Amino acid sequence: MDMAAHPSLSVPSAARLNGQGAWQELARNVAEPNAFYAPDLLIAALDHLADDRHVRVIEVKERDQVIGLLPVVLSPRHGRLPIGCVANWMHDHCFFGAPILRRGHEAAAWRGFFRELDAAGWANGFLHLEGLDAAGANAAAIEAVCVEQGRRWREIHRYERAMLRSDLSADAYWETQVRSKKRKELRRLQKRLGELGTVVTRRLGDHAELTAWCDEFLALEASGWKGKQGTALANRPEHSAFFRAACAAAFASGNLHMLRIDLDERPIAMLVNFRQGSGAFSFKIAFDEALGRFSPGVLIEIANLHDVQDDPDIVWMDSCAAADHPMIDSLWAERRTIVQYRVALHGRGTARLRRNAALSAANGLEAVSRLLKGKA
Q1: Residue 210 sits in which domain range?
Q2: Where is the BioF2-like acetyltransferase domain (predicted)?
């Protein structure tokens, strides 16, 4: 079988591939959906967010088909440890790190990733993977290939975050999963908000409105605490450019899911999701903090819950939220376990010795830290 890892692609080379459709075809046959590494968002990120970080995109091909796609960067540190390593690229607006694997070729793709990294002179230390689903196709393939190749690996962190996955209708889910006291309070807030004017919930469907919706989202987010702290998308031109490019590409491919609540035709809450395959990923939410007493952020999440549960093409949605998020955890009952892995890189001669030493040092320092914290 003719299978090889493509030499690591530079950012310009990766962007040119987008026009050839190789990544789009792979994304249509993905084993584990990840909108952040699918072409819509990945190309936008490579074009606008790579900045001074040398992002490499590893392709694995089988004959003329791409079967695996993994963007990586060199990191000078591993968490708090002064140990360099290779890591999957998780930029500021990437909330899931699963590489794109072709369905039915999961193990072959990971053999190719490891073969490329083992042979790469630029690949220091070990491979650090974060943002993976513990029950996903990547986790299963990594474990299987590591066992097959005698490659050391370990899980180094895990947490749970909210996920929406249910066969219930929106109304049934709302009634059975959200506490009656909370439902009553939210109905009261909706009624009070309606007393201020005309409240309308809309979903973006007309391409002619896309630019205006992006403008309004950026302005709404920047008007709140994120804008004051300098973390809103609009605070940095390259971040707002990424957002616009990602939304435009996702809309063109049918993968943008954008909602808003208007009060007298003015947006008071907006929400952006990105879809891939049968799944979707919650990306950003913005709301008018001057109307905080009406909880507009929660109200648009309720609208989102109904929109997703009533859409037969969306089977599940990842909240992409932090662990123990008080708002979304109270609305969504399901959970997704997110993990990090540390995986050995092989090689020849001194390269292998250096990589083994880096991995042993990281594992050893972690063990000491756990002992000091009483977690051993």
Answers
A1: 166-314
A2: 180-302
